[in-house]
Amino acid sequence: MRVRMRRRVLSVIVCLFLVCTGLYAQEEQQEQQEQQERQEQEVKKGREYKPRVQKLYIDIPLTIAEDLVMNVVGNVNWRFWGADPKAAYVDFESMRRNIDPNGWSSWNFEDGRGHDTFLVNQFFHPYAGGIYFAAARSNNLNFYWSILSSVFGSFTWEALCEIEAPSANDFITTVAGGPVVGEILHRLYFELEKKGGKAEKVGAFFISPIDRITAVIRRYGPDKGLSNIFDSSLAFGFSWLNAQFFDGDEDTGFWNTPSAFVGFDLVYGNPFTAQSKTPFDQFDLNTSLMVTVPLIYNFTIISDGYLASWFLADDDVNQASNGFTLQFDIYVIDKGAIILLNNGRENLDFNANSLDYTIKWRRRGNVIFNKPFDFSMKTHLGFSPWAVTDYNGGVTREDNNQYLWGLNIRLFFELRQMNNEEIMKNGQVMSLSLCLYDTWNHPNTPSFDANTIFLFSKIACSFPISDSFSFYIADSFLLLHCRLTKEIDGKPDITRWYNSAQVGLKIYY
Question: What pLDDT score was predicted for residue 4?
């Protein structure tokens, strides 16, 4: 009897085990099926990470197509909103004429003089070059091969999208500034994409729209990994502007007026431990915008990126790297509407593309007023093969764009409070920036001989008032001096300057 009972109990247990095992297997199979369906839906929606594998038979044609489409969009925009829309109405005859090098009568730097503002020629052309460059980078081409995309995009624009013959200044400025602007935008696009939020995705599109377009076409999802942002901050507030420009005649005019400013500083990668042969694995970017009413504006970009870098020191006290950097700097000050891009005659502007030898050094543990501070210094010394400014001697004298070459030296110092041997992002900070360029006219340019000196300096301090905000004060100064090395038609040497005292808030991210 007991044996029968045991057999019955054992049979029931075996049946229950088989039923449960079957149910569990069925449930597990159902979960796997649901997970597979979710993955398929994510693939359809383009959210799944897809490795960017180089396929040149796709990468190169798509880059070329994107460059041409951007040129068409730019031409259409010019027809509707350009200051001189007639120049955008190209035809087959203008294309045939502009493709032929024998017709490049404007390859003497004259084109653009008196037609476009400094902001158009010296910023929007490098920005366009950056979009061409980012198109290639987004399609898996490396830094150096992507330069050819800027060359191709600029040439097809000059030859196929404008009636006028190709301009030497526009072509050089586009190709020279494109790699710096494009690589920075390309890398910042990935940084915003990594965060994954809707606001970051919208921001990523505006930072580098061509990267987003390529991602949609090729079904690339956001990249994964840790952020490469070493430091970033945003400052904003009010300022008082003092400036001296030429004011409608041969006399100078002075401005003393309140204004508003915003500035953004970013350090990508650790500048003091950088060691890489990949261009722009580490770069610095400083931007600012100041506006007044009636409208005077100052737009500044100071940037540099390591092309190759090596360690000099890395211990508990000192960290240092050195290498070669590629730089793009632009300083534009003008009076009048930014959107209308007027040919204002009250201006102070300068831009330069430079190749420098750079050292970036940090020393920890400096005690000042019984507080530990981190001291850092970044030095740049090198050659500026292409710089541009303009000579403006008043309304009765002709404007002249100055195409320059020369030397530059840039120094950046910073003291930042530390806490427990680590840097406080929102601690007390004092910084000093100095940028000096000494340049001369390129030979055989249709202008007059001049030695141009440009100086930018800025001193800034911030004091923490909460975990997120600091009180911020700063003063920035720009000086441009064009000294004629020989007198031509009674033209004078000119000096223009600008100073802005700032007070506001600073946010560290």
Answer: 52
Q: Which two tokens stand for residue 161?
A: 């999208």
Provide the terminal-to-terminal Cα distance of the chain, rounded to the nearest Å: 79
pLDDT in tens, 240-286: 999 887 654 555 567 888 999 999 999 999 999 999 999 999 999 99
Give one DSSP letter per residue of 343-385, joined into a string: --SS-EEEEEEEEEEEEEEEEEEEEETTEEEEEEEEEEEEEEE
From residue 65, alpha-carbon distances to 61, 77, 139, 150, 213 in Å are 6, 18, 11, 13, 12
Q: What's the pLDDT at 360?
A: 97
* Alpha-carbon dihedral 177, 380, 317, 458, rounded to 10 degrees: -90
Query: Cα–Cα distance between 116 and 342 in angstroms, integer?
Result: 8
Q: Is the pLDDT of residue 339 over 60?
A: no
Of 375, 382, 381, residue with least CA distance to 361: 375
For residue 269, the model assigns a pLDDT of 95
Instruction: Tell me how far apart the 2 most distant CA atoms of the chain are, in Å.
Output: 130
Taking 90 as the threshold, does the pLDDT of residue 63 lie above it? yes
Please tell me whether residues 284 and 192 are part of one structural domain.
no
Residue identified by tokens 């624009």 is: 157
Checking if the pLDDT of 424 tops 80, the result is no
- For the purposes of burial, counting CB atoms within 10 Å of the CB of 118, is it exposed (0-12), middle (13-18) or buried (19 or more)? buried
DSSP character for 70?
H
378 C-beta neighbours (distance < 10 Å), count: 22
Tokens of 402: 């100055």
How many residues are there in the chain? 509
Distance (Å, rounded) from C-alpha 167 to C-alpha 111? 6
Q: Could you tell me the pTM of the whole model?
A: 0.86
Residues 181 and 283 placed together within one structural domain of the fold: no
Q: How far is CA 277 from CA 209, 355, 414, in A?
A: 27, 16, 27
Give how many domains the chain has, as a whole number. Answer: 3
DSSP 240-258: EEEEEEE-SSSSEEEEEEE
Question: What pLDDT was estimated at residue 26?
Answer: 44
User: Are 239 and 173 found together in one domain?
Assistant: no
DSSP 139: T
Indicate if 199 and 233 belong to the same structural domain.
Answer: no
Half-sphere exposure of 329 (CA within 13 A, CB side): 29
Claim to verify: residue 163 and residue 233 sit in the same structural domain:
no
Q: Is residue 480 included in any domain, yes or no?
A: yes
